[in-house]
Amino acid sequence: MDWQTMGNFAIATTMGVSAIGVVYGMYISAVTAIGAAKRRFKENKRAPMMMLTFIGFPLTELIYGYIVMQQMLAVEVTAANAARFVAFALLAGFIMCFVGILQGKIGAAACDALCETDQGVALYIAGLGITETVALFAMVFTITSF
Predict the structure, then answer these.
(1) Which of 26, 67, 81, 134 falls 20 to 30 Å from 45 in CA-CA distance?
(2) How many separate domains does the chain show?
(3) For the whole prediction, is pTM greater than 0.85?
(4) Is 102 exposed, middle or buried (0-12, 13-18, 19+ CB in 10 A)?
(5) Mean pLDDT over residues 103-129, rounded?
Protein backbone atom coordinates (compact mmCIF):
# COMPACT_ATOMS: atom_id res chain seq x y z
CA MET A 1 0.00 0.00 0.00
CA ASP A 2 1.45 3.36 -0.97
CA TRP A 3 1.41 6.41 1.31
CA GLN A 4 -1.28 8.29 -0.60
CA THR A 5 -3.64 5.30 -0.47
CA MET A 6 -3.09 5.01 3.27
CA GLY A 7 -3.76 8.74 3.62
CA ASN A 8 -6.96 8.52 1.59
CA PHE A 9 -8.16 5.65 3.76
CA ALA A 10 -7.50 7.75 6.88
CA ILE A 11 -9.35 10.71 5.35
CA ALA A 12 -12.38 8.58 4.52
CA THR A 13 -12.28 7.15 8.02
CA THR A 14 -12.47 10.68 9.47
CA MET A 15 -15.76 11.29 7.72
CA GLY A 16 -17.11 7.78 8.33
CA VAL A 17 -16.34 7.67 12.04
CA SER A 18 -17.80 11.13 12.61
CA ALA A 19 -20.96 9.99 10.78
CA ILE A 20 -21.30 7.00 13.12
CA GLY A 21 -21.28 9.34 16.12
CA VAL A 22 -23.82 11.63 14.48
CA VAL A 23 -26.26 8.82 13.73
CA TYR A 24 -25.93 7.28 17.18
CA GLY A 25 -26.21 10.65 18.94
CA MET A 26 -29.34 11.54 16.99
CA TYR A 27 -30.78 8.12 17.75
CA ILE A 28 -30.26 8.61 21.49
CA SER A 29 -31.93 12.02 21.57
CA ALA A 30 -34.73 11.05 19.16
CA VAL A 31 -35.79 8.03 21.20
CA THR A 32 -35.89 10.13 24.36
CA ALA A 33 -37.78 12.93 22.58
CA ILE A 34 -40.41 10.46 21.41
CA GLY A 35 -40.90 9.19 24.96
CA ALA A 36 -41.07 12.73 26.35
CA ALA A 37 -43.55 13.78 23.66
CA LYS A 38 -45.70 10.75 24.46
CA ARG A 39 -45.92 11.85 28.08
CA ARG A 40 -46.98 15.32 26.96
CA PHE A 41 -49.62 13.93 24.61
CA LYS A 42 -51.06 11.81 27.42
CA GLU A 43 -51.52 15.04 29.37
CA ASN A 44 -53.20 16.63 26.31
CA LYS A 45 -50.31 19.08 25.93
CA ARG A 46 -48.27 19.91 22.87
CA ALA A 47 -44.73 18.64 22.59
CA PRO A 48 -42.18 21.47 22.30
CA MET A 49 -40.85 21.78 18.76
CA MET A 50 -37.51 22.84 20.25
CA MET A 51 -36.86 19.13 20.74
CA LEU A 52 -36.08 18.92 17.03
CA THR A 53 -33.14 21.24 17.62
CA PHE A 54 -31.83 18.98 20.36
CA ILE A 55 -32.20 15.92 18.14
CA GLY A 56 -30.39 17.55 15.21
CA PHE A 57 -27.53 19.11 17.15
CA PRO A 58 -25.03 16.27 16.43
CA LEU A 59 -25.37 16.89 12.67
CA THR A 60 -22.67 19.56 12.80
CA GLU A 61 -20.05 16.89 13.49
CA LEU A 62 -20.78 15.45 10.06
CA ILE A 63 -20.16 18.86 8.51
CA TYR A 64 -16.90 19.21 10.43
CA GLY A 65 -15.84 15.74 9.29
CA TYR A 66 -16.54 16.74 5.71
CA ILE A 67 -14.54 19.96 6.06
CA VAL A 68 -11.57 18.08 7.51
CA MET A 69 -11.82 15.50 4.74
CA GLN A 70 -11.85 18.15 2.01
CA GLN A 71 -8.89 20.02 3.51
CA MET A 72 -6.85 16.85 3.94
CA LEU A 73 -7.48 15.73 0.35
CA ALA A 74 -5.29 18.62 -0.78
CA VAL A 75 -2.30 17.31 1.21
CA GLU A 76 0.16 14.94 -0.41
CA VAL A 77 0.94 12.08 1.92
CA THR A 78 4.59 11.08 1.96
CA ALA A 79 6.73 8.77 4.06
CA ALA A 80 7.77 11.81 6.11
CA ASN A 81 4.26 12.91 7.10
CA ALA A 82 2.23 9.68 6.86
CA ALA A 83 2.13 8.79 10.55
CA ARG A 84 1.17 12.31 11.62
CA PHE A 85 -1.40 12.54 8.81
CA VAL A 86 -3.09 9.26 9.73
CA ALA A 87 -2.99 10.03 13.46
CA PHE A 88 -4.63 13.44 13.01
CA ALA A 89 -7.24 12.07 10.61
CA LEU A 90 -8.24 9.24 12.92
CA LEU A 91 -8.17 11.32 16.10
CA ALA A 92 -10.30 14.04 14.52
CA GLY A 93 -12.84 11.45 13.38
CA PHE A 94 -13.04 9.79 16.78
CA ILE A 95 -13.28 13.09 18.64
CA MET A 96 -16.17 14.17 16.40
CA CYS A 97 -17.78 10.75 16.86
CA PHE A 98 -17.68 11.00 20.65
CA VAL A 99 -18.89 14.59 20.62
CA GLY A 100 -21.86 13.52 18.46
CA ILE A 101 -22.71 10.74 20.89
CA LEU A 102 -22.37 13.01 23.92
CA GLN A 103 -24.51 15.67 22.26
CA GLY A 104 -27.13 13.00 21.73
CA LYS A 105 -27.08 12.20 25.44
CA ILE A 106 -27.21 15.89 26.37
CA GLY A 107 -29.99 16.45 23.83
CA ALA A 108 -31.91 13.53 25.31
CA ALA A 109 -31.68 15.03 28.78
CA ALA A 110 -32.69 18.42 27.37
CA CYS A 111 -35.77 16.93 25.66
CA ASP A 112 -36.81 15.21 28.85
CA ALA A 113 -36.28 18.30 31.02
CA LEU A 114 -37.99 20.62 28.56
CA CYS A 115 -41.08 18.43 28.37
CA GLU A 116 -41.24 18.27 32.15
CA THR A 117 -40.66 21.93 32.96
CA ASP A 118 -41.21 24.01 29.80
CA GLN A 119 -38.13 25.97 30.90
CA GLY A 120 -34.37 26.11 30.46
CA VAL A 121 -33.94 26.12 26.69
CA ALA A 122 -31.00 28.55 26.80
CA LEU A 123 -29.22 26.43 29.39
CA TYR A 124 -29.73 23.25 27.35
CA ILE A 125 -28.42 24.89 24.18
CA ALA A 126 -25.45 26.27 26.12
CA GLY A 127 -24.58 22.75 27.29
CA LEU A 128 -24.76 21.47 23.74
CA GLY A 129 -22.73 24.43 22.47
CA ILE A 130 -19.94 23.96 24.99
CA THR A 131 -19.66 20.34 23.91
CA GLU A 132 -19.64 21.50 20.29
CA THR A 133 -16.51 23.52 20.99
CA VAL A 134 -14.48 20.33 21.40
CA ALA A 135 -15.36 19.22 17.87
CA LEU A 136 -14.59 22.68 16.50
CA PHE A 137 -11.18 22.61 18.14
CA ALA A 138 -10.51 19.13 16.74
CA MET A 139 -11.42 20.34 13.26
CA VAL A 140 -9.33 23.52 13.44
CA PHE A 141 -6.30 21.83 14.99
CA THR A 142 -6.39 19.07 12.38
CA ILE A 143 -6.72 21.46 9.45
CA THR A 144 -3.95 23.76 10.68
CA SER A 145 -1.54 20.89 11.37
CA PHE A 146 -0.54 20.48 7.72
Answers:
(1) 26
(2) 1
(3) yes
(4) buried
(5) 97
Taking a C-beta distance cutoff of 8 angstroms, is the pair 83, 41 a contact? Answer: no
Q: How confident is the model at residue 55 (pLDDT cuts 50, 70, 90)?
A: very high
Cβ proximity of 67 and 143 under 8 Å: yes
Range of the domain at 130: 3-143
User: The domain spanning residue 78 has which CATH number?
Assistant: 1.20.120.610
**Please, which contacts does 46-54 make with residues 24 or more away whose CB atoms are closer than 8 Å?**
47/115, 48/114, 48/115, 48/118, 50/114, 50/121, 51/110, 51/111, 51/114, 51/115, 53/125, 54/29, 54/106, 54/107, 54/108, 54/110, 54/111, 54/114, 54/124, 54/128
Q: Concatenated DSSP letters for 111-142?
A: HHHHHHHS--HHHHHHHHHHHHHHHHHHHHHH
pLDDT digits (tens, 9 = 90+) for 62-74: 999 999 999 999 9
